[in-house]
Predict the structure.
Amino acid sequence: MKLASFKDENRYIVVVVNPAAEEASFVFRPEDACPVASQEAYATIAELRRAPSDIVLEKDRYQMTVPAASVVTFVGQVK
């Protein structure tokens, strides 16, 4: 997987690229930021465009499965 992230005062964006033929598990823990529950994830894969993805918030980290051959964009807010 490949990853790029961006953060400003109130929000962050994380882009995850999974070029593999298999899905992969992804865990994201924002450092130096207190994430709030309002995070959205969107997946772009061959069959769908900008489909919402399920993401699980566990304590101070997010966990999700990244589909095969996809790009997933996380958009979240921090306190």
